[in-house]
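Hey, I was hoping to borrow your eyes for a little while. A protein chain has come my way and I'm curious about its shape. Take your time with it, there's no hurry, and the full record follows here:
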Amino acid sequence: MLSCGAAATPATLCRGLRVRVGVHAGVPDARDVVLNATTGRTQYTGQPLSTAKAVADCGHGGMVLLSSATFAAVPASQLQGLGYVLNMGEYKFATDLVTPGAVYQVITEDLRPRLAVLDPELRSVTQLQLGVLQAPLGQVSIAFVNVVGASTLLAWDAEVAGRALQLFHRRATELLMRPRANARQQQQGGRVQTLAANEPAAHGGGELAAQDQPGYVVEMAGGLCLCAFPTSASAILWALHLLDDLLMADWEPELLAHELCEEVRALLCASSAPWAPRPGSSTTASEPSRLVMDVGAGVRGHGRAGRRRRHGGQPRRAARELGAGHAQHQHVGLLHVGAALCRRA
């Protein structure tokens, strides 16, 4: 029971059997619907049944969960009439038969207090992206990432540019969850990792790495990536890892042939500064991007998407600082940090 004082009426959150429900919409293959000759009843098999079961299996008792296909199939007006629809994040399910994707929880106003005792992270699956209940609140840090010339690249070759942007989205999202996946098991040898592991005294890298926490995707579309972090250190680490990761990504030769994504190399002397690129590596490679970060508060719900949306001056300040460096192409590949975030890092 949940109570807010002697005068408050206790609310029953759970009682009796704990039931979890998974819902999936769509039967694309007619062979998945058959008549059972023994029972004389219709039987559903294949992908629809596997998906519904996988979604149900990752829930806790007391949850009603929807697959992304179900969420997309229900009109917005009907979703609003159901109560609260929450994006619980993206997951890789326990079975390889089901494609990874977003999972949504539906809960009525009467059962909303149950959220206080249910774990926001689902069970028996690998989480690929944080959900709305795990989004940082309060004095958060915002990272505003922009791919330079995204519209120009899409107009040049929509397929090649589209695949490149998908790779950019995938790398950015994977790095957001990196702290939870244990960074020690990831690929070694990056400049950021070396700095954090070996130079804590000179650069504060050890203290920074200790504050590394997962980030939350506010918006990701086209050449835009907007993320929120619980600490300034985690935002900075993610941004540095992203720039390092994009430099070594497996870009298509056609993309690298474009002037916006061409590879630039430089010969390095043995006495190069510790922050210089690795010998023989590119100093600039696609996707050319700019990252701007600021810190502040401001959260508003987004009913249709089931996600949190940042509002107020904080994202606008980040976008304004990004626009200030937009006119000069040589500013690509740099990380710009707002004054408020510098004071908190």
Q: What stands out?
A: The chain has a mean pLDDT of 75. The domain at 140-344 is CATH 3.30.70.1230 (Alpha-Beta Plaits).
